[in-house]
């Protein structure tokens, strides 16, 4: 394979623009050029003229070590996250999850994201836990971040404390990530006040959930250019409500979407987007714009996580991360919003094919990549690297029965 790959794209959602019949040139893991198709163009290596191309998706909040199923917790709505966590730790499914090796749970979470087109994931957990696993994963797991678990007196004491962690984030130009106002007790609802007192609310601040944010809280978030990650599925599962996302957007807050752990959240980022669209309609009796929804899983999280120089859009100089979905309508956004797992036709990661329909097997061969095949919902797929069927078998062996994991529907 030459050191340049010329890809003809029928439509590209950048996501700021929609480009028709453009050529993407991949070189050294990056998008080297992006230009309109010329007549008699003879350099095309890969014809995707029947497809819509989107940037690789970014899951702005996950807990990869918590990648298991089914969901737990039957005392909904919870007052805050702590009683749900108590129910989790005391549940039989948590004990079953513990029979698996941590690295297999990380692989499980990574494949859950990969199969849905999420090629970058923010894994909210202390560095000493995920650092050994990050280099081994088939997708990009955020490595540079500062964190706290929750801004309250009953958090899990991750990191060196909010003030120190925020200062590290500013110094290193990385995100400071924490859960905020994940509940309705008096302590939880003071989260933004605490951050203001500690001078830890700013453009490096990435706040997860925010289901109890007041008008004043939203004002301060917008004023200080803080970011919010919206996890509506998990919020409704645990609390039967979610963040006031329209008010946040109208105030100018940068809002991204995350899945949270599948033990309380959605099966994958595709399901999360569909649920977000439904929730917005139910809450506000109007539709959220599809282009905004797609930005919430591309350019918005890239900005929040300080990755926008490399990720979040299809443009020259960015990483060669993209997903291809076959046309479904004249609306260039709907193929992604409506997509199921089997509709993800091809994924490029760091400028190379990573996963897709078996019809693209030849492009994997051109890159001389080791591949394996499997069925996803009875559709034949090809993937570079280990076969996820083997991972599923290892998990079933660990728990001692044919475990059904709906976010890994492979055979």
Describe this structure as you would to a colleague.
The chain has 411 residues and is an alpha/beta fold. It folds into two domains: 4-56 and 312-399, Urease, subunit C, domain 1 (Roll), CATH 2.30.40; 58-304, Metal-dependent hydrolases (TIM Barrel). Helices cover 30% and strands 24% of the residues. The chain is built from 15 helices and 17 strands. The protein has helices at residues 81-89, 92-97, 102-114, 127-130, 162-172, 191-197, 215-223, 232-239, 245-251, 269-284, 290-295, 299-304, 334-337, 361-366, 388-399, and strands at 5-13, 18-27, 30-36, 46-55, 57-62, 118-123, 140-141, 146-150, 176-180, 205-209, 227-230, 254-257, 322-326, 346-349, 352-357, 371-376, 379-384. The strands form three sheets. The protein has a nine-stranded mixed sheet. It has a five-stranded parallel sheet with strand order 8-9-10-11-12. Strand 9 (176-180), helix 6 (191-197) and strand 10 form a beta-alpha-beta unit. Helix 3 crosses helix 15 (388-399). The longest helix has 16 residues, at 269-284. It is globular. The chain starts with a strand and ends in a 12-residue tail after the last helix. The mean pLDDT is 96.
